[in-house]
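Q: Here's a chain of 247 amino acids. Please give me its 3D structure as tokens.
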Amino acid sequence: MKKLSMLMLAVCSTIAFAQKISDYKYIAVPEKFETFGEDYGLKGFLTKALAGKKYIVLPIIKDNWPSEAKGNFCNVVTADLLNDKNLFKNKVILQFKDCNNNMILESKGGSRIKEFEEGLQDALREALIKVPVSNPVALLPASNNTAQHTSPEPVASVASTVTPEANNYSNGKMDLQKIQIDSNQFILAKSGSSVPFAVFKATSKNSVFLVKLADGNTTVGYFENGNIVIDIPQTDGRYSKEVFTAK
């Protein structure tokens, strides 16, 4: 019963530490939104609005992406716009998903303007209210995107093959317990507590994780010789290597 309670608290804590859209610098926008018969100026409207919120908008074709985006697709969030109109209103659903197709933000907007182009753009304007200004965190290191893009390997399989069996880790200053949430994510919590010290989420790079720390910082972590390593952000902009040894 105690273990079940800890797991439920861990899941809730993981949701609280979920990745935010503002953590990203790059957003990919598709050539067309599939649920609309025409463009209605929506792509241009969305692109301009995102740029105004300090995001760098990328085309869906990756050849001309900046190196830090092309080097690791998990540095990019993908936008999509769905047609949700009814007889009385033009309505849209704006979605943003990460490289593992996990939903980061979904926002709905509507307009009573009946003309399609003007009404849909007005609905999109409302949906964009929930999108914060970009405040990007540290980017993930380069990975072998080409191989994974042409022949993708399930993330669940990656996570299960690289996760050490040990459940307890220590850096000499604190003892942490590893709690597996699902095949793609786990948390490190102080022994006897379900409050996360860090939340780990699988990326497209084998054994490299996106890590959300309890202080709100996002960084990277990875397995090394059976131990867990986290790059801890420092006040001067550098990173220190914190090694948690399996016990």
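Q: Can you summarize the key feature?
A: The radius of gyration is 20 Å.
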